[in-house]
Amino acid sequence: MDEVDTKIVALLREDARRSFQDIGRHVHLSAPAVKRRVDRLEQDGVIVGYTAIVDPPSLGWRAEAFVDLYCEGTMPGEAIKRAVEPEPGVVSAHTVAGEASAILHVMAQDTKDLELVLERIRATDGVTRTVTEVVLSTLFQR
């Protein structure tokens, strides 16, 4: 990956709907040359997908939290994934270094719904406790 590839990735991270022509203007390449590079970046696994960033309140999600998940013993990441992935309020899960086994990003309709999501997570086999940090505001998101 060279400097041009890095710039192409940065431009796509800003706006994944940019045209190859627009990207080409920024990196001084033709649209077909940009397409070839993007295709190669996808093939090499550098770009693994494209997504829409949505406004959570527009979807009815007005409560957001990060949850430190503590599990019995050394619960493997795959087991944690199987345990929390079915919960629709969990939008992402990450294993972490430190005391917690994982950290979860949770979205809910309101604080009552957040409480119900947390109760279901705490009732999961292998989960010993949680520590929840409720988000007050998002400063930025990439």
Describe the structure.
The chain has 142 residues and is α+β, with helices and mostly antiparallel strands. The protein folds into two domains: 3-43, Arc Repressor Mutant, subunit A; 56-134, Alpha-Beta Plaits (2-Layer Sandwich). The protein has helices at 3-14, 20-27, 31-43, 77-84, 111-122; strands at residues 63-71, 90-95, 102-108, 127-134. The chain has a four-stranded antiparallel β-sheet with strand order 2-3-1-4. β2 (90-95) and β3 (102-108) form a beta hairpin. α2 (20-27) crosses α3. It is elongated. It starts with a helix and ends in an 8-residue tail after the last strand. The model has no long low-confidence stretch (mean pLDDT 95).
List keywords for this structure.
single chain; 142 residues; alpha+beta; Arc Repressor Mutant, subunit A; Alpha-Beta Plaits; 2 domains; four-stranded antiparallel beta sheet; 5 helices; 21% strand
Q: Roughly how much helix do the residues carry, as a percent range?
A: 25-40%
Order of helices and strands: HHHEHEEHE
CATH superfamily of the largest domain: Lrp/AsnC effector binding domain/regulation of amino acid metabolism (RAM) domain
Give the number of helices. 5
CATH fold title of the largest domain? Alpha-Beta Plaits
Main sheet strand line-up: 2-3-1-4
Instruction: Tell me the Rg in angstroms.
Output: 20 Å
Query: What is the total domain count?
Result: 2
End-to-end CA span: 21 Å
Write down how many β-strands occur, each being a DSSP E stretch of 2 or more residues.
4
